[in-house]
């Protein structure tokens, strides 16, 4: 139990020391003389309440701390101290102060104090146990002797049992509800079989669709080949006539080349005639004249050949006229061939360019 208490700079107490007698102690006095501050000081030291620092005396210098020391009958003690840069507990059992703690005092301090709410009574509190109900008295005694653990354990167990029963009931209701909902899906196995059949049918339809597309492509190609055959039939109708024109054109080209050669000979003969006339005026000797006579004979022979050539030229003129007619006809056939636009059935090459 508490043997003595020392209070320094706590509310109205600048420095107060109280020695307690064994048993029950009563603090009395006139109002506003610090009776309740003593209780607050004990609670601050024992329970770290209140948490703020408003209880420091206003008259205390800033550098001084607020300090409450409690001494017990077994000569053990605790000190609660707070000030600028200081917030700690000191005990007789530990050399080092306790500085790191939360809202509750350290366990070592709580074990030394070993008192609760029933150990301190304020002036406005009811008479201890006399105004309490029988149940409150029983709970207090049970708590003092440790029987409250059994009561709290029983309450906790009952609470767990109640919650478990409620959970089981809810689970059973949920299971029942789910079973009812599952009945809505009894058709799913049959639907799964139908889906498998439908999937098979869809695959078969897709295969048939592909085959139909391929057949349409083949049919289209057959139509194209038929059109090409018709084009080739049209070309075969004019092939013989065109082939004759091609042969005639080749012969005409040969005649034109021969005509050009004959024209060259005629031009040479005319040049020789001019040279003969020139040299006739210049010939002074018989030998030269004889030589010229030989050349004249040759020239006369050439003149006779010229007459033959003239007749050939007339014939060539007729051939040229005939060639011109054939060329016009070839041009007409060429135009018709281009209009036909003959394509190779294998590679699509325009064969009209080769003809």
UniProtKB/TrEMBL annotation:
Query: Is Coiled coil one of the keywords?
Result: yes
Transmembrane portions of the chain: none
InterPro entries xref list: AAA_GajA/Old/RecF-like, P-loop_NTPase
Q: Residue limits of the Endonuclease GajA/Old nuclease/RecF-like AAA domain? A: 1-335
Q: What is this protein called?
A: Putative ATPase domain containing protein
Matches recorded under SUPFAM superfamilies: P-loop containing nucleoside triphosphate hydrolases (SSF52540)
Cite the entry's keywords alphabetically.
Answer: Coiled coil
What positions belong to coiled-coil segments? 161-211, 309-343
One Pfam family, please name it.
AAA_15
